[in-house]
Amino acid sequence: MKEIYLVSSGDLRLSANQQCWEAQVEMERSLGEAVARHGCQIRRGHEYDEQKQHGFIASQKQGIDVFLGIPKEAMVIVAEAVWQYSHHLLAGLSTHEGPVLTLANWSGQWPGLVGMLNLNGSLTKSGIEYSTLWSEDFNDEYFDHRLQQWLQTGRCSHDLSHVTPISNVRLPEEAVEIGEELAHQLISEKAIMGVFDEGCMGMFNAIIPDHLLNPTGVFKERLSQSALFYESTQVDPAEADRVRGWLESKGMEFQTGPEHGVDLTDEQIRQQCQMYIAAVRMADDFGCDLIGIQYQQGLKDLMPASDLVEGMLNNRDRPPVTSRCGDRILYDGEPVVHFNEVDECAGLDGLLTYRVQSKLGQPVESTLHDIRWGDSDASGLNTDYVWVFLISGAAPPEHFIGGWSGARGMRQPAMYFPNGGSTLCGVSKPGSIVWSRIFVEENQLKMDIGRGHVVQMEPQETERRWQATTSQWPIMHAVTHGVTRDQMMAKHKSNHIQVYYCESADSADWSMAVKASMAVSLGMVVNFCGVSPA
Question: What is 351-383 written as a DSSP string?
Fold first, then answer.
């Protein structure tokens, strides 16, 4: 039987790899049966580690060694049922000469779909050829036909008829003029992107090279997480407590307990509020127009998670922060545009959104979400396919039903965060949204952009989806216009999707046209996905 090599990249964190291993084993069993139906067999490219109690590639060095043992022209499936660090694989895949298939199970349990999309975006940026595929049970016709196609030819294809290049669309003249004006202003006046250490969680796709970023008028200020840690320790605890008091006066509720290892504690919240104040002051120190905190790695061993900080920063209505000498309110009445997980593509997108929405008098709050999973509405209330967009910890409360009063703070899972920290969790409100993604392909900045809306679901259906994913994290029930589940998976070049609200469907169409025009004027290659404003 023809042998297909299988590799599976995992986390850097041992606890995550151990807890998620069972789901990976089950997926590989089903995949092996599917491959066998076509006269082939799986050969694992690396063994289960008895000492570590998992079989994932858990470092870049291990990934390099694994690929040294795989024949150069072998067919390779990268199978992901969990979140994975793409740089574990990129070195080996960069010189591999055989066909590559990235594959994930359709499950919300662990972020396998998210991990695969991260890898796809990283491979696209690297110029490494690959095919991609996904399935709920590895027995459906869509999957089986394309698996057979890949096994026979080394490639499989998907329907991308939803994609329309902006060059094929006649945008409203006024939208073009506004977009060009905003682009010329950014290039002329320039903006500073504060980056608290690059390369979060192996997301090579989330780093924009300077030679592509700088022509847009945006320049990086490379900051250190160690500096953020130090500045946080210098904030008076009384100041931090006033931030918490502001949040609670707005109606936010924290679910606290006494044990540091398993509960959200008062001290964890205090340290997060200190980090919030420190981040705003550092942004002001360096004149930053936007900042990104790396989120998990590095700081997780020193402090509680940065999620509460990130959600506050991205909200126009947020706790005031004074300068160190107390003579002024910093970024008064405005968000400090923040890109979660220091995803620079999301950061550039968020800056464009802020400029466009400010110009149009529309809501300025934006956030990235993971494309975590999707399903039909089990309650039957909604007939459209509904995505679960679920960022790993925080979204701006302006996006929530009830705003701040609809926000809850829960402890981050101990599997990821030994020092805990509050999430900023809520259910996104129904309304019209614009979604987009900036990515790097063929040494160019590109943008996919489309429209959608957020639906409201029965409480039991929201709870079902939370329990199928991660209940501590903010959730958005999203419907993408003119883009099916499989089209989104086939085309999207990232684990992340950027979203923002507009006051109506018409204003969302208009905002999308202006933003697309601005992106083109900044030198990006733009595609409308699903719908266009023409």
Answer: HHHHHHHHHHT----EEEEEEEEEE--TTSS--
The continuous run of DSSP H or E covering 191 comes out as strand 191-196
Yes or no: say if 518 and 354 are a contact pair by the CB < 8 Å rule.
no
- Residues forming a β-bridge with 448: 437, 527
Give the whole-angstrom CA distance, residue 373 versus residue 390.
9
**Mean of the per-residue pLDDT values for the chain?**
96
Digit-coded pLDDT (tens) for 212-232: 999 999 999 999 999 999 999
Question: Global pTM?
Answer: 0.97
Whether the CB-CB separation of 304 and 420 falls below 8 Å is answered with yes
Q: For position 63, what pLDDT does the model report?
A: 98
pLDDT digits (tens, 9 = 90+) for 143-168: 999 999 999 999 999 999 999 999 99
Judge contact between 341 and 391, C-beta under 8 A.
no
Does 295 score more than 80 pLDDT? no
Instruction: Give the whole-number percent of the chain exceeding pLDDT 90.
Output: 95
SS3 state at 146: helix
- For residue 534, pLDDT over 70 is answered with no
Whether 421 and 304 have beta carbons less than 8 Å apart is answered as yes
230-238 CB contacts, 8 Å cutoff, 24+ apart: 231/278, 231/281, 231/282, 232/271, 232/274, 232/275, 232/277, 232/278, 232/303, 233/274, 234/278, 235/274, 235/277, 235/278, 237/270, 237/274
Cα separation, 451 vs 433, whole angstroms:
6
Structure tokens at 497: 């999707």
Task: For residues 339-345, give the mean pLDDT.
Answer: 95
C-beta separation of 166 from 527 below 8 A: yes
The partner residues of 195 in beta bridges, in order of sequence, read 222, 292
Residues 6+ apart with CB under 8 A from 151: 2, 4, 35, 38, 40, 75
Domains defined for the chain, CATH in brackets: 2-153 (3.40.50.10940), 173-529 (3.20.14.10)
Beta strands 290-293 and 191-196 are: parallel
Distances from the Cα of 39 to the Cαs of 35, 36, 139, 168, 436, in angstroms?
Answer: 7, 5, 15, 44, 41
Other Cβ atoms closer than 10 A to 123: 24
Stretch (H or E) spanning 439? strand 431-441
- The Cα–Cα gap between 165 and 534 comes to 12
Handedness of CA 148, 149, 153, 158 (dihedral sign): negative
State yes or no: pLDDT of 343 exceeds 70: yes
Query: Residue 327 has which token pair?
Result: 């003579």
User: Going along 8-149, which residue ranges are E strands?
Assistant: 40-44, 76-80, 100-105, 131-135
Contact 49, 55 (CB under 8 A): yes
Whole-number pLDDT of residue 140 = 96
Type of residue found at 90: L
Kindly report the number of other CB atoms within 10 A of residue 35's CB atom: 22
- What are the Cα distances from residue 324, in Å, to 231, 234, 236, 270? 11, 11, 11, 18
Q: Exposed, middle or buried: residue 181 (CB in 10 Å: 0-12, 13-18, 19+)? A: middle
**Closest C-alpha to 271, from 305, 311, 310:** 305
